[in-house]
Structure formats: structure tokens, C-alpha cells
Q: What sequence folds into this?
């Protein structure tokens, strides 16, 4: 925050005269800081474990950094480790995804928040959040079915596995994240600003541009960062449509466009492939792979710093004066409205198409027996155990991640100076952008091997925590920043200590955004495949519910879908994969709907600015 | 299920959240500390742990399912493929390694204390698969040199091997996959295969199903794939190699060059429940599972 909230220690507060009971309105509420610090600590701890794993890996063999950055030949057999093509692939795919998703996502968010009546906007917003609930593995399956042929026709190339296909899949995947977070940021802009602007005679387009967007900018930027983090970190969906061909680089600037419709490889897909399992746990091969991991983390950090650069942390600064020409004001206004509402159609069409494919393919899920009967063999029977396992993992992850993420968010939003906040935010986004495959590998080394847990449901849940925490923390912090300044000023004028201010003002104000964050985070965690394969699940034979922690694997829907869709020849396996996908989407959708209902009640209950 | 969630949801609301928060964090730390102290103590789950090749896993799972009724608990994992299974067996983490490739000298060197015993449960023929369009266009067979040229990106048009005027698109298996090792052995023998070509028409695939889907959707494509996976897919053809087609007779007699055994590997001779499990797979009932997943039985291989 721009202004520090430190007050003189001897300031008389109403709490000083009363005995502190540890809770309730009158107390000093010191527990707030313990909680907030442990939240931030969890972020730092994750980072330490990750870096520890990677640095140990690099130290276990000599890494030829020059070759890693400049050569595009990757051939473990001849000990040639060049990563340039993967770096190029990661950059190209992310730029493609963002350039497709950000304009549409922002326009759709503005349309939802500023153009539609609430009665219409709420269900639409829920549907867009449902898109976020579709697990990445399903995007991968649909990408193979729909997007590859599209790219093949577009670029007149065989197959269609390409950087462009990966970029499109990612764009579809990150759009809901961008929309949901941006809508939250827009909704937090007090209505007074809009009313004032309208009363000056501005058109809707001008109101949005000059009164609303400047207030919501930092929150909307956080949405893009989360989207970018997700794009950089996604492995499985990209894995299925990128072609995974090492060593291709555009030879000239004219070749860049043709390289986009050709197979490529990103850093993430390289690490999510079989090679980390083949490289052992030391030596030059393993070290080179860890080097790629470090490069990836560094890229996430660079993108984050670049993305947050210039944000002042104070959303409530005076809007910049814009010289808007009076020429064609009304037509411009109408055109903008059409464009923004049109942008809403795209996520809608995606949702309908996605559901259509899921329903057509995953018909098995419509039979209740499929939900409540256990599997038989590799691909028969129902998926009761996988459902139970997934719910167990999600519930455990939510229980751990919500307090930690919220604490971290409160810390970033209130306690830290502007500079510290930016550093913490960068770290948090970096965690969120960590390829989950790295989290899985680090968790595997830490829990399953070093601590001797073997395959364990708890290890899986803990590995998923860093997926959820940053989302909760960033949405919370964004919401805190967009709090109207007068609320804060009033609270301190009443003599509240900062911890009391957090307890009685910040927490009630930020709950809705935090819930959104938790939902988005869980939706993402529900679809995570890679980390669970390494830590928590087995292909077959895990019991429905684990009895202990050590050597207690579970079965989960995403890993079940992945193994079925990759490696089975039996026709019933395909039906079961799609059926499982539909069940996973339905479960997450149910959770989301429930939580959205809760959130809406909260939003209704908190009329801060009327 | 949903009621459980509904009960839990209100816990995130209101004032109880802070107790929940500290309780959850405390519980987590406590759990981590306790299990950390427990070190590598094994809870002694009596389940048999099998892990390895994704090619063998479906068969292993179906067999485990059949034995569930008899009270045998078997978990099947597929992390790291054949190579991963062998290394986990060597370090004593699992009871049975599933492998779609024979043990190499490297494996024996890496785990000198392990007494690996291999039991062959069936076999798998790997074909060089091309599309019907190319096969009908004149590609009736390929020599070893031609296969090498295709996969090294030197042959870029099917014209060069007597086929139609159509670009070649190569789908190669990712490293570590048994299928790719079979192909490498056929082309290069004991030599190290070269780095993948930098041609534009070259992509990597993983699982067998993914390979089949991509072959079917790409004109002029070629890939190595278990022949069992193209049964019932007339648009794909397993091309004869060196004049030998991958027919059952040729595979069983060993004249078809790309055949691989499917193994269950144990440390020492199988004993007790592990033996019961492997015996079940070798029994006529268990052998029926192999054709179901596209593989050949021991009987078909003349074992």
C-alpha cells in the first residue's frame, strides 16, 4: 500500500481499556498477524523447497549453461543438452495465448460488469467460471479433436500439432481466469464514481474508460498475471497438441509464422514428458533438466515483474485526465457496446460446444450406476473410488490452502509497504506459475522418497496446495487494494489498531473475492494430473478411502482419465475416459455453484458504498 | 457426497474460520512432523505393488481385479515406464516390475545385489504403421534403410519409396517408451540412435492411443505402434518390413523383426501371493486378457 498504516504505539484505542479475551470485537486481535505471517511463510517455504530441489539437481552434474541457452540440439545419448528451442516454444505459446485471451477476456469482463443487468450477469458469470472448472486434460482431448484439424487447414500442414494449436488451447483455458478476476476488480469500484461520471453527461464508453477502468486496473492486471502463470505452468493440455518436437527454431524472421503452425516443444512439456523419470536423480542429464526448470522459474519471474511494473499498488489514485474527442461519441459508444457484448459470446459458445462434446462422448456419466459402482479391471465398471479420491484430495487441499492463502493475501494487501508487497506478490505469482510437474517432482522427492511416505493421498493434497494458495492470495490482495480509501480512513479515525482493522474491516470486505479465488484455485487443482501421478495415485488397485498416510494411495479422476486416454486400446476405455471427464466437470460445477451462491449472499449483505 | 461438502462449506464462513485456520495449519504441521519422525517406516500394507510399463499395466490390472475376490490386494502403477519399474524393483520399493523390454546389462550393473527373475507373460508386435492412402498408393513394403530414412527425416515424400506424391509426416515415440526402443533396435542394432531430425514434419507422441488418433488424423503419417492397436481400423496399415508382414505366424516364428516380449520381473523367484498372481496371468483364464488389449498370448508365441 502507498501509505503505511503504522500508528504510534501509545495511541489510545477502545481496546486498551478492556480486558482482552482473545476474540470478539473488543480484543486486540493479535492472532491476525500470526495467521498472516504463516500464510506468507507457506509461500516462501514452497519456493525454498522448489529451489532446493532444482539447485540440488544442478549441483549433481555439470550444466553447460551456454549450450542450454544457445543450442537447439537435445540428445541425451550424446550428452548434448540445448534448450533454445524449448525457450522459444514457451515464449511463442504464451504470447499467442495472451494475445488471444486478454482482449476477449477484458472485454467480456467489462460487458458482464458494466453492460448487463445483474440478473443476467450472474448466471453468465457462473457459466464462465464453469469453464475454469473443465480440467486441462479435457481441453487436451478436445484440442486433439477440434483445434488440430483447424490449424491443419489454416496453415495447410499435415496433422496440426503446433505451437499455434497449443496457444489456442491455452487461450481458451486462461480466459475464464482473466474474466473472473477482472469482474471482481470491476465490481469493487464504488458506484459513486459511475454515477458522478454519468451525471457529467458522459456516454457509457467514456464512463468505463475514465471512471471505472483506472480503479480496477490493478485487479485486472492480476487476472492477466494469473492467466499467464497458468499458461506457463500448464503441461498436460499443451502436451497433447504441441507435437513435442525438440530442436525446431525459425531460421529467419519470415520463418517465424511458418514455425507457429509446426510442431514444437515448450519447457513445460519437456519436463512433463518421460525424461525426468529416465534421467535418474543425478548426473549431467538430470542436471540439464533441472536447468530447464530453473529457466522456466526465471521466465515466470521475469514475466511477473514485467507485468506488475508500473502498478502503484494504490488503485484509488486520481484517474488520469483523458482528452476524449467529441467526434462521433454516440456511434463510438454503440460500437463499443456491440464489441464488448460480442466478446461475451465467445466464452459462451466455447462453453456450449465443450458441454456438447462432453455429453455426446461421456454418456456413461449419465447413468447413476457409473457414479456409485467401483471400477472393474483397467477400464470397466464405474468410477466410485476415483470420485471419492478426488473429493478427498480437494477437501484436504482446500482446508490447508484457504487459511494460508488468505493470510498471505491479507499480508500483501495491508501490512507490507508498496515495495515489499510487490516483491511478495511477485513471489506468489511465481509459485502460481510454477509448472505443476515441478511441484509434483519436488513433492515426490520430499514426501514420497525422503520422508518415506510412498504414494500418499496427503502428499498429493499438499502438492496441490501451492496451486491454490497464490490464487486465493492474489484475489484477496487485489480486493483489499481496491477498498475505498474512506473505509480505511474511518476505521483508523475510530482508533482501531491495524490488527483490529484487518479483523473487523478487511476480512468482511474481502470474503467474496477470496471465495472466488478459492474456487478458481480448486477448479484448477481438480484438473491437475501431473503432480498426482507422481505423489498420490496409482494406475489400479488403490482402495476407495485410504486408511493411513504412509503408502496410502488413492485413485483420482484426472489421472484416471490421463492413463485411459494415453494407453488403452480397449474401446470401453475411451468411453470411460470421457465419462470420467464429464463427472469431474459436474462435480466441480456443483462445488462452484454452491460456493457462488454463498458468495452472492455475501455480496448482497455487504453494501459498503451506496 | 454433496452433503459432506455442504456441511463443510459453512465452515469457511463467519467467525469460526480462524479456529479452522489455525487448527488446519497446526494439524498439517503436526502430521508432517510425526510422519517425518516416522522416517521411512513402512505401514506394512499387505498389498502387492507392481509398477512399470504402460503397455503391460492394463493386463496386470485386469488380472489383479480377478484376484480381488480371493482377497489379494494388488496395486498397479505406471510411473516411469519399463525403465522406471526396473529401477524401483532394484531399490526394493515394489514387488513386481512390469516391463515391455528385456533386462539390459545396464540394469544388472545398476543393481548388482538384485536377483532379477523375468517371467514372460506374452508378446507384442510393433509395426511401422502407415495410412491406407499411402499403402494403396504403392508402398507395399519398406526396407530397413527406408525406415531409417523416414524416421531420420531424410525421406520427405512418399514418392521416394514408391508411394503417392504426398509429404511424409513422422510421429516418433517419446524416449523411454518400449515401442521406440524396439524400433531403434531394428534400425540401429546396438548403436546409439541419432538426435531427432529438425524437419518440420516431425512430432513426438506418447501413449498408444494418442499415436493411433494422430495417425488417423494426419495425411501421409507414419509411426511405430503395436499392431494390436490397428485391428478394426481399416484406414491404418502395418507395412511389411524387409518383405515380412507382421502376421501371427511370422511374429510367432520370429521372422518378423520387431517383436518384443512382455515381462513380469521379480527380485528372486516369485513366492507366496506374488507367485499366485503371476501364475494366474499364466493360466488359460489370465492369458485371455492379452488379446483383449491387443497383445499376443504365450501360446501364440509358441511358448
A:
Amino acid at each position: 500500500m502507498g501509505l503505511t498504516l503504522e500508528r504510534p504505539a501509545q495511541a489510545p484505542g477502545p481496546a486498551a481499556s478492556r480486558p482482552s479475551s482473545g476474540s470478539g470485537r473488543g480484543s486486540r486481535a493479535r492472532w491476525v498477524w500470526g495467521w498472516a505471517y504463516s500464510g506468507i511463510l507457506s509461500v516462501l517455504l514452497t519456493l525454498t523447497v522448489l529451489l532446493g530441489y532444482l539447485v540440488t539437481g544442478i549441483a549433481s552434474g555439470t550444466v553447460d549453461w551456454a549450450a542450454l541457452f544457445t543450442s537447439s540440439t537435445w540428445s541425451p545419448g550424446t550428452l548434448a543438452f540445448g534448450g533454445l528451442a524449448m525457450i522459444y516454444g514457451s515464449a511463442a505459446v504464451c504470447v499467442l495465448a495472451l494475445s488471444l485471451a486478454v482482449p476477449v477476456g477484458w472485454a467480456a469482463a467489462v460487458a458482464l460488469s458494466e453492460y448487463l443487468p445483474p440478473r443476467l450477469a450472474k448466471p453468465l458469470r457462473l457459466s464462465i467460471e464453469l469453464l475454469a472448472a473443465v480440467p486441462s486434460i479435457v481441453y487436451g482431448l478436445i484440442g486433439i479433436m477440434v483445434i488440430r484439424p483447424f490449424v491443419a487447414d489454416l496453415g495447410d500442414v499435415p496433422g496440426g500439432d503446433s505451437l499455434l494449436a497449443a496457444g489456442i488451447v491455452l487461450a481458451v483455458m486462461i480466459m475464464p481466469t482473466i474474466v473472473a478476476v477482472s469482474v471482481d476488480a470491476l465490481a469493487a469500484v464504488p458506484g459513486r464514481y459511475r454515477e458522478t461520471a454519468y451525471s457529467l453527461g458522459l456516454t457509457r464508453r467514456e464512463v468505463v474508460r475514465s471512471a471505472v477502468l483506472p480503479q480496477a486496473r490493478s485487479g485486472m492486471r492480476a487476472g492477466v498475471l494469473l492467466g499467464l502463470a497458468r499458461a506457463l505452468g500448464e503441461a498436460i493440455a499443451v502436451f497433447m497438441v504441441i507435437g513435442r518436437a525438440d530442436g525446431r527454431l525459425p531460421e529467419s524472421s519470415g520463418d517465424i509464422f511458418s514455425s507457429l503452425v509446426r510442431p514444437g516443444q515448450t519447457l513445460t512439456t519437456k519436463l512433463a514428458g518421460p525424461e525426468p523419470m529416465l534421467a535418474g536423480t543425478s548426473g549431467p542429464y538430470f542436471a540439464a533438466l533441472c536447468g530447464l526448470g530453473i529457466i522456466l522459474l526465471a521466465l515466470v519471474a521475469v514475466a511477473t515483474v514485467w507485468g506488475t511494473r508500473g502498478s502503484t499498488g494504490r488503485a484509488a489514485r486520481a484517474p488520469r485526465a483523458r482528452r476524449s474527442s467529441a467526434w462521433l461519441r454516440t456511434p463510438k459508444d454503440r460500437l463499443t457496446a456491440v464489441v464488448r457484448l460480442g466478446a461475451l459470446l465467445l466464452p459462451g459458445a466455447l462453453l456450449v460446444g465443450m458441454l456438447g462434446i462432453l455429453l455426446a462422448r461421456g454418456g456413461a456419466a449419465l447413468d447413476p450406476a457409473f457414479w456409485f459402482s467401483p471400477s472393474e479391471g483397467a477400464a470397466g465398471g464405474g468410477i466410485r473410488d476415483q470420485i471419492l479420491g478426488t473429493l478427498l484430495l480437494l477437501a484436504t487441499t482446500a482446508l490447508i490452502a484457504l487459511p494460508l492463502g488468505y493470510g498471505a493475501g491479507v499480508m500483501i494487501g495491508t501490512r507490507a509497504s508498496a515495495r515489499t508487497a510487490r516483491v511478495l506478490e511477485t513471489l506468489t505469482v511465481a509459485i502460481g506459475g510454477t509448472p505443476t510437474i515441478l511441484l509434483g517432482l519436488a513433492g515426490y522427492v520430499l514426501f514420497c522418497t525422503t520422508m518415506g511416505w510412498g504414494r500418499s493421498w496427503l502428499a498429493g493434497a499438499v502438492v496441490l496446495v501451492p496451486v491454490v494458495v497464490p490464487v486465493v492470495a492474489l484475489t484477496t490482495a487485489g480486493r483489499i487494494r481496491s477498498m475505498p480509501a474512506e473505509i480505511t480512513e474511518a476505521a483508523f479515525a475510530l482508533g482501531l489498531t491495524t490488527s483490529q482493522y484487518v479483523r473487523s474491516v478487511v476480512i468482511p470486505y474481502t470474503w467474496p473475492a477470496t471465495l472466488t479465488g478459492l474456487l478458481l484455485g480448486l477448479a484448477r487443482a481438480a484438473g491437475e494430473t501431473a503432480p498426482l501421478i507422481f505423489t498420490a495415485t496409482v494406475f489400479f488397485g488403490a482402495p476407495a478411502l485410504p486408511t493411513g498416510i504412509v503408502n496410502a494411495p488413492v485413485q483420482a479422476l484426472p489421472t484416471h482419465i490421463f492413463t485411459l486416454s494415453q494407453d488403452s486400446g480397449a474401446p470401453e476405455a475411451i468411453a470411460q475416459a470421457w465419462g470420467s471427464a464429464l463427472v469431474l466437470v459436474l462435480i466441480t460445477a456443483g462445488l462452484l455453484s454452491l460456493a457462488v451462491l454463498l458468495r452472492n449472499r455475501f455480496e448482497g449483505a455487504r453494501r459498503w458504498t451506496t | 457426497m454433496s452433503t459432506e461438502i455442504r456441511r463443510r462449506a459453512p465452515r469457511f464462513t463467519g467467525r469460526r474460520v480462524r479456529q479452522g485456520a489455525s487448527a488446519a495449519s497446526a494439524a498439517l504441521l503436526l502430521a508432517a512432523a510425526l510422519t517425518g519422525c516416522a522416517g521411512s517406516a513402512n505401514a506394512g500394507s499387505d498389498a502387492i505393488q507392481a509398477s512399470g510399463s504402460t503397455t503391460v499395466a492394463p493386463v496386470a490390472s485386469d488380472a489383479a481385479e480377478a484376484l480381488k475376490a480371493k482377497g489379494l490386494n494388488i496395486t498397479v502403477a505406471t510411473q516411469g515406464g519399463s525403465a522406471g519399474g526396473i529401477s524401483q524393483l532394484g531399490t526394493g520399493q515394489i514387488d513386481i516390475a512390469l516391463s515391455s523390454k528385456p533386462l539390459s546389462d545396464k540394469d544388472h550393473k545398476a543393481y548388482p545385489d538384485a536377483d532379477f527373475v523375468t517371467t514372460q507373460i506374452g508378446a507384442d508386435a510393433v509395426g511401422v504403421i502407415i495410412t491406407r492412402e499411402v499403402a494403396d498408393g504403392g508402398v507395399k513394403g519398406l526396407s530397413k534403410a527406408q525406415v531409417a530414412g523416414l524416421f531420420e527425416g531424410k525421406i520427405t515424400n512418399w514418392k521416394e519409396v514408391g508411394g503417392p506424391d504426398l509429404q511424409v509426416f513422422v510421429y516418433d515415440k517419446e524416449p523411454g517408451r518400449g515401442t521406440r526402443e524396439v524400433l531403434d533396435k531394428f534400425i540401429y542394432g546396438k548403436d546409439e540412435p541419432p538426435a531427432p531430425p529438425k524437419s518440420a514434419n516431425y512430432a513426438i507422441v506418447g501413449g498408444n492411443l494418442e499415436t493411433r488418433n494422430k495417425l488417423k488424423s494426419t495425411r501421409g503419417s507414419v509411426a511405430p505402434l503395436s499392431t494390436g492397436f490397428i485391428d478394426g481400423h481399416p484406414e491404418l496399415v502395418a507395412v511389411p518390413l524387409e518383405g515380412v508382414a507382421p502376421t501371427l505366424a511370422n511374429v510367432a516364428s520370429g521372422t518378423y523383426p520387431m517383436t518384443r516380449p512382455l515381462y513380469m520381473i521379480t527380485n528372486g523367484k516369485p513366492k507366496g501371493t506374488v507367485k499366485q498372481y503371476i501364475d494366474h496371468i499364466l493360466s488359460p483364464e489370465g492369458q485371455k486378457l492379452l488379446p483383449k488389449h491387443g497383445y499376443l498370448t504365450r501360446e501364440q508365441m509358441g511358448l
Remarks:
- Chain B has 13 helices and nine strands.
- The radius of gyration of chain B is 24 Å.
